[in-house]
């Protein structure tokens, strides 16, 4: 006993000796005959190792935690083939392969040769055609994709290291992990060829055992042909099953490892359970399908009813919400009780929502209690998310979807759009009415009556149409918005108008990191000349004037060109606008590539230039009250007389205002403060391929002549 304890202590300290012992034993099995009792021990070890590998694969948190699996597959396969040789030698020489093989031949297959052959054929088919073939293909594709993705992943690690997101130790760890991942997929691709060859060898061995065993039993042992077939067939099938079952377990182990995607630090069972139960809608639909299957005549109803109940309870239904829906539906059938239900249910829901907001949302939609009760909020959320995505795709960076909130008041159907918890606009809707989004003339031609209201879509008064006329509006092909559509339209306009507030330092870093994957050298040079803080200010100024950031390559090239000589952020933004002149002009051009414009004369430019005041806090336009009012009246008059479409299509033909580059931003700020959102372009912003069509001009005569100019100077 003392010697045995010492042996195990040495083996625990020298794990390499265990592998050496297995390899030496494998060679010995190929050369020397072994007794049947020792063969049982080796068969048990083979089964134990296969079960252990399968359990380790199931509880893996990452495939890289078992990088020794290809070597294990090789050793296990060679050991099993050597064991096959030993068992085959015992079958052919003594007709006794040990208790385990005999048990598999008699107990597992019930002593029936046909059943044994069928079971062996099924196990071999599942292993060879299904598991091994699929695993081999997955490993091959995984190895190819991993090798193809290595340069990009290496560049990503280098980029994170340069930007300071990770240190050198973390970068080294990631590179080591990447190399291990690549080596693992490549080794698994080759190791699975051993499993495939093992399955083919098993088929050959069963034929040799059957033919050779029957021949030896009849010729040498004097058995009758029937007895020889019964004895050697049972032993051969038992040997085949006892070798193919561990091989199948090893194939499943390899399949579990190579098909593992992600894992997120969880084992396979927990990962599968989390993902299968993540979508409650899928579980509820599955429960309904099972319930329907249980109603099929002849099917065992208790089985399907129990499974349907398990699936439904697994979806974690909100019993309180279901109860409220039932009571709300009953309240709709009894209108006199409806107000009481909403007055008790809504404030609680509103309070819970408010308590869950830990930070001020950038943009929020606040609904009145009555509007929230009748509004399809799921559809509204989809419309708002689509608007955020479309504007984000247009401007070149992503916007977060707005937060939906409910206001505890007893007002009408009102909603407000809040920017950083401050309302920027508030509107009131009409119950059972739709808002026309078309030319009012078309409504008159269709013979549909409408009611005028305050402007919502354009600067013109809105036209409200009763909801009962929705079918007639669709038949006439007229555009209209319901309540959710109106809120989404106003949100889209507010989001574009205040888009600059969503572009900060963090969003700028994300844009830079995204561009760096394609233009690493350009990004590195640009951020060296223009720090991220200045770059964020330049991009914010562009977005505030509806200039897209999609062409970041040209923006960074311009910053590299001017970043060293130009220190003022506003002028840097003007240089970028000059580089983006084609994109800017394309945005405001008509279908004929012409740009309608109101042009400021040189004298007016000079007058406004002299009105700019420089202070330590920055530059601003300082016009006298009289001159300011006259300039506003002149702009308002020329815009009112500008040719173009009206109504819902007015935004597409909005004329621009052209001036010099050094006064452009001051005129833009002046117009925005006074309610004009027309684009203001400098002469440098105009591209040659987009001709400008002057529709009006603003001269110094609008200021009352030379007296006003002299007084301003």
Automatic annotation (TrEMBL):
From what superkingdom does this record's organism come?
Answer: Bacteria
Family annotation (InterPro entries): FHIPEP_1 (IPR042194), FHIPEP_3 (IPR042193), FHIPEP_4 (IPR042196), FHIPEP_CS (IPR025505), T3SS_FHIPEP (IPR001712), T3SS_HrcV (IPR006302)
> Subcellular localization, per the record?
Cell inner membrane
Alphabetized UniProt keyword annotations: Cell inner membrane, Cell membrane, Membrane, Transmembrane, Transmembrane helix, Transport
Which Gene Ontology terms of cellular component type are present? plasma membrane
| Biological processes annotated in GO | protein secretion
- How does the UniProt record describe the way this protein sits in the membrane? Multi-pass membrane protein
Q: Which Pfam families match?
A: FHIPEP (PF00771)
| Coiled-coil spans in chain | none
Signal sequence range: none
List residues traversing the bilayer.
Answer: 17-35, 41-60, 72-92, 107-130, 199-220, 240-261, 282-312
Fetch the PROSITE patterns from UniProt.
FHIPEP
Q: Would I find Disulfide bond among this entry's keywords?
A: no
| Protein family according to the UniProt entry | Belongs to the FHIPEP (flagella/HR/invasion proteins export pore) family.
- Its name, as the record gives it, is Putative translocation protein y4yR
Species, as recorded:
Gluconobacter wancherniae NBRC 103581
Q: What is the lineage of its organism?
A: Bacteria, Pseudomonadati, Pseudomonadota, Alphaproteobacteria, Acetobacterales
């Amino acid at each position: 006993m003392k010697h045995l304890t010492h042996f195990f202590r040495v083996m625990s300290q020298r794990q390499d000796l265990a592998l050496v012992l297995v390899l030496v034993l494998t060679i010995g099995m190929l050369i020397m005959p072994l007794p049947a009792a020792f063969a049982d021990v080796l068969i048990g070890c083979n089964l134990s190792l296969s079960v252990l590998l399968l359990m380790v694969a199931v509880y893996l948190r990452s495939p890289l935690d078992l990088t020794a699996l290809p070597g294990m597959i090789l050793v296990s396969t060679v050991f099993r083939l050597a064991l096959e040789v030993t068992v085959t030698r015992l079958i052919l020489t003594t007709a006794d392969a040990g208790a385990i093989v005999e048990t598999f031949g008699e107990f597992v297959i019930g002593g029936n040769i046909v059943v044994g052959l069928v079971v062996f054929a099924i196990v071999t088919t599942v292993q060879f055609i299904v598991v091994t073939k699929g695993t081999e293909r997955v490993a091959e594709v995984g190895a190819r994709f991993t090798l193809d993705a290595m340069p990009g992943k290496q560049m990503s690690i280098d980029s994170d290291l340069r930007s300071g997101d990770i240190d050198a130790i973390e970068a080294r760890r990631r590179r080591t992990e990447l190399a291990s991942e690549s080596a693992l997929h490549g080794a698994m691709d080759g190791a699975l060829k051993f499993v495939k060859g093992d399955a083919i060898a098993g088929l050959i061995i069963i034929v040799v055992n059957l033919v050779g065993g029957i021949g030896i039993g009849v010729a040498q042992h004097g058995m009758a042909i029937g007895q020889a077939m019964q004895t050697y067939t049972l032993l051969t099938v038992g040997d085949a099953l006892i070798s193919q079952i561990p091989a199948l377990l090893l194939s499943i182990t390899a399949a579990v490892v190579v098909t593992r995607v992600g894992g997120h630090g969880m084992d396979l069972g927990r990962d599968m359970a989390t993902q299968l139960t993540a979508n409650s809608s899928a579980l509820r639909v599955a429960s309904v399908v099972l319930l329907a299957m249980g109603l099929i005549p002849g099917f065992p109803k208790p089985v399907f009813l129990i499974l349907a109940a398990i699936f439904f309870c697994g979806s974690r239904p909100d019993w309180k919400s279901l109860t409220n829906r039932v009571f709300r539906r009953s309240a709709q059938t009894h209108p006199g009780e409806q107000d009481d239900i909403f007055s008790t249910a809504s404030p609680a829901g509103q309070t819970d929502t408010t308590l869950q907001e830990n930070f001020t949302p950038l943009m929020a939609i606040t609904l009145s209690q009555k509007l929230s009760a009748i509004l399809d909020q799921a559809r509204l959320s989809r419309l708002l998310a689509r608007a955020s995505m479309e504007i984000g795709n247009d401007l070149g960076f992503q916007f977060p979807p707005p937060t939906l909130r409910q206001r505890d008041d007893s007002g009408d159907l009102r909603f407000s759009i809040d920017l950083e918890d401050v309302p920027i606009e508030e509107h009131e809707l009409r119950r059972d009415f739709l808002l026309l989004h078309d030319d009012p003339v078309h409504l008159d031609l269709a013979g549909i009556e409408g009611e005028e209201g305050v402007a919502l879509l354009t600067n013109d008064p809105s036209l409200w149409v009763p909801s009962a006329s929705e079918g007639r509006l669709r038949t006439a092909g007229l555009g209209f918005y319901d309540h959710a559509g109106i809120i989404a339209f106003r949100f889209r306009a507010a989001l574009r108008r205040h888009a600059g507030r969503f572009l900060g330092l963090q969003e700028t870093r994300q844009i830079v990191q995204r561009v760096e994957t394609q233009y690493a050298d350009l990004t590195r040079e640009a951020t060296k000349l223009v720090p991220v803080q200045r770059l964020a200010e330049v991009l914010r100024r562009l977005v505030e004037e509806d200039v897209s950031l999609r062409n970041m390559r040209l923006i960074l090239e311009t910053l590299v060109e001017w970043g060293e000589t130009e220190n003022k952020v506003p002028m840097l933004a003007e240089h970028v606008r000059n580089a983006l002149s084609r994109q800017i002009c394309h945005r405001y051009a008509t279908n004929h590539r012409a740009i309608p414009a109101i042009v400021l004369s040189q004298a007016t430019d000079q007058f406004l230039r002299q009105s700019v005041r420089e202070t330590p806090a920055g530059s601003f336009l300082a016009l006298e009250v009289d001159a300011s009012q006259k300039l506003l009246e002149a702009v308002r008059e020329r815009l009112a007389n500008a040719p173009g479409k009206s109504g819902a299509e007015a935004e597409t033909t909005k004329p621009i205002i052209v001036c010099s580059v050094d006064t452009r931003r001051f005129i833009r700020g002046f117009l925005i403060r006074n309610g004009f959102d027309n684009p203001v372009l400098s002469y440098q912003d105009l591209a040659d391929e987009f001709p400008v069509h002057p529709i009006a001009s603003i001269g110094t005569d609008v200021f009352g002549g030379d007296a006003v100019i002299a007084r301003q100077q």
